[in-house]
Specification:
The protein is an alpha/beta fold. The chain is 25% helix and 33% strand. It contains 6 helices and 11 strands. Strand 5, helix 2 (73-80) and strand 6 form a beta-alpha-beta unit. Helix 1 (43-55) packs parallel to helix 2 and helix 5 packs across helix 6 (185-194). The longest helix is centred in the N-terminal third of the chain and has 13 residues, at 43-55. The protein is globular, with a radius of gyration of 17 Å. The N and C termini lie far apart (53 Å).
């Protein structure tokens, strides 16, 4: 088997991110904590987007927010499941991740950042939600979910205040979908407290049902 080769390194908020490649496979790793994401395991991220898009199907000129670019698979799924009238904002706090998606690994997801429907905001998704209260759907795939992996500051996004911000940023009847590596009853309770009608769905990291099972929360803001 081919070994992974380090092809780029980025420093961000005291953390070192490393991009590795092995043939057509890419891996992003964080300091000594290990692998953050791998291009071979992305099915649950696609499900995250598909659920959100189905919830708002039929809306004209929908505006969707993807929080966390990752390896581009969530964004690519959004573009697949929305029409030409959609507007998609992507919030990614780490400039290197945007650069890697435009270059090294963009072809894996079909270079979704090049789509005319997409606008990239290199800022915290909480800030994007704070300044724009107009989204039909918000998809959050930041860090490892409610239990942060790379940065403790990400915890605020999943707090009561963070969920209240997401609720306020959605139009009536809008949907918030949240990806997590594991279940979290306390987070479910916080979503309910914020006013969302909450359901959950499990999805595998691989479409073949191999690999880890991830959790997706679906929170709908009441109204129409």
């Amino acid at each position: 088997m081919l070994p992974f080769i380090l092809i780029d390194t980025a420093l961000w908020a005291g953390t070192t991110l490393r991009l590795y490649q092995r043939g057509d496979e890419f891996s992003i790793r964080v300091d000594k904590a290990g692998e953050l994401m791998n291009s071979r395991a992305h099915h649950s991220e696609e499900v995250l987007a598909e659920i959100a898009c189905k919830c708002i199907a039929g809306r004209k000129n929908p505006h969707l927010l993807v929080g966390g670019l990752g390896m581009g698979f969530t964004l690519a799924a959004v573009l697949l499941h929305t029409g030409s009238d959609a507007q998609v904002t992507v919030s990614e706090l780490i400039p290197a991740v945007v650069r890697w998606n435009r270059g090294y690994m963009g072809r894996l997801s079909g270079f979704p950042l090049a789509d005319a429907r997409v606008q990239v905001q290199e800022m915290d998704v909480a800030r994007v939600m704070q300044v724009s209260h107009q989204f039909d759907a918000i998809m959050l795939d930041v860090d490892n979910g409610p239990s942060s992996f790379t940065c403790e500051n990400n915890n605020a996004l999943y707090s009561n205040a963070g969920l209240a911000l997401a609720y306020a940023a959605l139009k009536a009847g809008g949907v918030l979908t949240v990806w997590s590596a594991c279940t979290d009853d306390a987070f479910t309770q916080r979503m309910n407290k914020a006013g969302f009608a909450v359901t959950q769905q499990r999805a595998g990291s691989h479409q073949s049902k191999r690999g880890n099972r991830h959790n997706i929360w679906i929170g709908v803001r009441p109204g129409s």
